[in-house]
Amino acid sequence: MTFDLFEHLEPPEVVREELAPGAVVLRHFVLQHTKAILAQVASVVEYSPFRHMTTPGGYDMSVAMTNCGDYGWVTDRQGYRYSRKDPLTGKPWPPIAPLLSQLAIEAAEQGGFSNFQPNVCLINRHAIGAKMSLHQDKDEKNVNYPIVSMSFGLPAVFQFGGLFRSDSVQKCVLTQGDVVVWGGVSRLAYHGILPVKAGYHSDTQDCRINLTFRQVD
Ligand SMILES: O=C(O)CCC(=O)C(=O)O
Ligand SMILES: [Fe+2]
């Protein structure tokens, strides 16, 4: 018989924090699914391992990445793009598990976007010190769909700005189970992650895991 310590606990209360028009943080939205989601990440990683990709400018990214879905986001000296095949394995990326798509769709709905059918899940692993500089997610053919981002493990400071790199940014700490949804007039907002501070999390040890769901076409 399996015994789940948390089986009888009430799901945690979801707290909404509006960041900007079309952009919201849903605190704890996927917290109760952490173990199942991280198990799915582990099975993706077995098939398509984490790797440090190279930017078009020739720098290795500090964040290690992999993908699941019909396409995966990749970068190398040739540029940023979506690719049907994992360049490391030469094979298609593993599929997005139904639980992951379902939760991403529900989060998008809570964010006010009811038309979302994700076909890419980019998985980021931030070791201590890893960061993601301010950028726009703009490699998707269709930017009418939102981005849904789920965070696990070590906390990180998420920066969320405006449509220009020079716009001021809001900072918010994302912790395990938090989901950020941005779309509509905020879809092309600049955002990033400050270097992850040293720490230990019992579910992810010395790293942060982030999943961003996208519908690229
Ligand atoms: O790690 C995060 O919270 C954001 C990730 C991100 O912006 C991206 O993968 O494009
Ligand atoms: Fe991004």
TrEMBL record:
Leading EC class: oxidoreductase
Protein name per the record: DNA oxidative demethylase AlkB
Oxidoreductase keyword on record: yes
Ranges for domain Fe2OG dioxygenase: 117-217
PANTHER family hit by this protein: ALKYLATED DNA REPAIR PROTEIN ALKB-RELATED (PTHR16557), NUCLEIC ACID DIOXYGENASE ALKBH1 (PTHR16557:SF2)
Cross-referenced InterPro entries: Alkb, AlkB-like, Oxoglu/Fe-dep_dioxygenase_dom
Cofactor: Fe(2+)
EC number, UniProt record: 1.14.11.33
Annotated source species: Limnobaculum allomyrinae
Keywords, in A-Z order: Oxidoreductase
Molecular-function GO terms, alphabetical: broad specificity oxidative DNA demethylase activity
